[in-house]
Write a structure and sequence with these properties.
There is one protein chain. By secondary structure, the protein is an all-alpha fold. Among the domains are: 71 residues; 89 residues, Membrane-bound Lytic Murein Transglycosylase D, Chain A. It is built from 11 helices and 2 strands, in the order H-H-H-H-H-H-E-H-H-H-E-H-H. Strands 1-2 form a two-stranded antiparallel ribbon. It is elongated and about 145 Å long.
């Protein structure tokens, strides 16, 4: 019983002391007694001393980290110098490559918001972007860690810009009603609006068009998307016109060498041998 009484008295004293300290902490400076003021000053001095010790410890740690960072920076610079020497490039070469890659990345971003139809129409531009990137990839600088992953990611983005055009077809009508030939079909506003593009239709349908001068009603022709003529189409077009000129030249030569006869001569039967 006595023990419990002592415990209770101790708790009471402790609570009272804590409350007293709280009251003293909240009391304005001008209301403090001399002893209370001296106590408050000691408490603040202790706090300042602890903060100074923490600051000094932190400052020492910061200095150590700065020294370590400087050492790492020097190590990285030395490694880069050795790597540049191994690749046979200079800092100017690296900066030039960095700028070229950045320009390609910026141009690629401009295509992201375009519709599928617009991307189909600008397929040649996208192919040019890919060709420029491949040219950069062929340089030794592309192997540097700074650029390697960026180039891989950019190549993926450019490949993602390609859109396959939906296949368009045209059913050949009659000459009497529709005046359909490859030249006229190509010139229709809903096809190309340009008759000079006729060779694109021919080359897309060589499985059913052997002679581009001959197409037949009912044929369903594939119509490639508009755009510049491909090297294959240009080659086929040149071969076609070369053949036409040769046929015209032979016809003219044949007409020039054919003997002329009078009506009386034509009426006479040929003599036997």
């Amino acid at each position: 019983m006595t023990r419990w009484l002592l415990v209770g008295m101790s708790l009471t004293v402790a609570v009272a002391a804590a409350q007293q300290r709280e009251l003293q902490a909240e009391k304005p400076d001008e209301q403090l007694t001399k002893a209370e003021a001296e106590q408050r000053i000691r408490e603040w001095e202790e706090k300042v001393a602890r903060l100074q010790a923490q600051y000094q410890a932190s400052s020492a740690e910061v200095q150590q980290l700065e020294a370590r960072l400087g050492q790492l920076a020097n190590d990285i610079r030395r490694c880069n110098d050795e790597l540049y020497a191994l690749l046979g490039v200079t800092d100017a070469d690296i900066e030039r490559f960095r700028q070229q890659l950045g320009v390609l990345e910026g141009r690629t971003r401009q295509y992201r918001g375009l519709s599928d139809e617009a991307l189909i129409e600008r397929r040649a531009e996208i192919a040019a972007l890919e060709a420029e990137l491949n040219a950069l990839r062929g340089q030794k600088i592309a192997l540097l860690p700074e650029f390697y992953n960026r180039i891989i990611e950019l190549a993926r983005e450019i490949r993602g810009l390609y859109r396959e055009p939906k296949e368009k077809t045209y059913t050949v009508g009659t000459w009497a009603r529709d005046r359909d030939c490859l030249w006229n079909i190509s010139g229709k506003p809903d096809i190309y609006g340009d008759p000079f593009q006729w060779v694109k239709i021919w080359q897309a349908n060589t499985d059913q068009i052997r002679n581009p001068d001959l197409i037949y009603p009912g044929q369903v022709l594939r119509v490639p998307p508009p755009g510049p003529k491909t090297p294959e189409e240009l080659k086929a077009e040149r071969a076609y016109y070369r053949k036409k000129r040769l046929e015209q030249q032979r016809a003219a030569e044949a007409a020039a060498t054919q003997p002329t006869t009078t009506p009386q001569q034509e009426a006479q039967p040929k003599r036997g041998n």
